[in-house]
Amino acid sequence: MTRVERAPLRRPQTSLRQSGDRAYAALFEGVLLPVWERAVCRRDTLAQLTGLEESQWDARETRDKAQASALHELLCYAGRNVPYYRELFRKCRFDPRGAHSRAHLAELPLLTREIIAERYDDLIDPAHRRRNGKPCTSLSSGKAPAFEYSGAGEGWRQAVTMRADAWAGYRPGRKGFFYSAGVAGRPLDLKSRLGRALRRETSPESTHADDAARRKALELFKQTRPDVMICDAESGAEFAGWIVEQGLRDWDDLPVICSSESGLLADRAVLSQAFGPGIFETYGSRKTLLVGAECQEHTGLHVSEENVIVELLELGMVAPSPTPTGLQQPQRNRQPAGRGELGDVVVTNLHNYGMPMIRYLTGDVARLASEEPCRCGRSLVRLEH
Ligand SMILES: [Zn+2]
User: Fold this and answer.
1) Cα of 134 to ligand 1 centre, how many Å?
2) What is the pLDDT of residue 321?
3) Cα gap 290→133, rounded to integer Å
4) Least confident of 26-30, 37-41, 232-236
């Protein structure tokens, strides 16, 4: 009898809450987000996002042309303005003015973590010094180096991440639950806290990965009733495993965006059991550089080709210690990995002029997915690992 009386009361409340959530998301996406990005952050993120939502369907030739043009500009800028590249190009007799395709990248040595550690200051464009975004701490075992990001580089990062989020059904202003236990984060300043509140992002305060912290996180998760779960591969799978083991799930399916900086496959089975079958893997970090993400077809990770060039090189030894000049001669002649073969992932970021990342050897391995177009219709190449 009690159930019969309660049921009609709960439905209108739920429906009212859902309507409120939808109305806020529309207000956020249509009004608050443009004001925030343009007036507060002074970025063209939304214009870039609009462009990206169109260019993901471009013909291959159109994208190759746009990518070659962005690369040409980046190389010319770096060669003129950034001390490390000025010196490197001179030593390699590399003239960026003649570099009109990505094939020219092969003429340059790789950028390794050791070089970044040794030549950090020389990798920063003097015109951007102290104006770049602060370095971000890696989510993976601390092995990745920190890069600084110019305002434009950050705008591109935001736009590419928003596009990939939309592939998973996550639009700005919907409630996102961010879970990355065991990761030491920086305390957020007032602007960041306000931004998170407006975007309706929630994350547990504790970064420990013990039972007490998981319980608190779960409590917050239930209070929030998020539309999407965003986590890193390792701690997300651990949290999901704990939920399944304890039999604590009492919510409907929701999509999970699961990021991995190292390209390690997330534990899909346990994530699916805890949150539902919509698991969307991404490669790269939300905080630094999103390299690729899954669409709804789950047939590999579409590379954000408008923002990065990914090369896969035949597997080689880990880079040796740098020479005093920072030139990695032994890394110069590595051939591209064959299609379908695992290769070392090398990334060039096309838009971060504040600290150009050109041929960065990530330490990760991946392979190109089949040439067959993805059923989603997007022409962005796909990675598998
Ligand atoms: Zn696709």
Assistant:
1) 33
2) 44
3) 16
4) 37-41
* Residue 266 tokens, joined: 């997330």
Helix pair 60-81, 83-92: axis angle to 10 deg: 100
Residue 49 backbone dihedrals phi, psi, to 5 degrees: -60, -45
At a CB cut-off of 8 Å and minimum separation 6, what does 52 contact? 159, 160, 163, 306
What is the average pLDDT score of the chain? 84
Per domain, the residue ranges of the chain are 19-133+305-385
Distance, CA 235 to ligand 1 centroid (Å)?
Answer: 26
Those residues with Cβ within 8 angstroms of residue 182's Cβ, 6 or more apart along the chain or in another chain: 207, 208, 209, 234, 235
235 contacts: CB under 8 Å, gap ≥ 6: 179, 180, 181, 182, 183, 209
Centroid of ligand 1 to alpha carbon of 296 (angstroms): 7
Q: Could you tell me the pTM of the whole model?
A: 0.85
Identify which of 183, 184, 229 has the alpha carbon closest to the alpha carbon of residue 202. Answer: 229
2-6, 59-63, 75-79, 210-214: which range is least confident on average? 2-6
Question: Hey, which bits of the chain come out as E strands?
Answer: 176-179, 201-202, 228-232, 256-260, 279-284, 290-294, 301-303, 308-314, 343-349, 360-368, 382-384
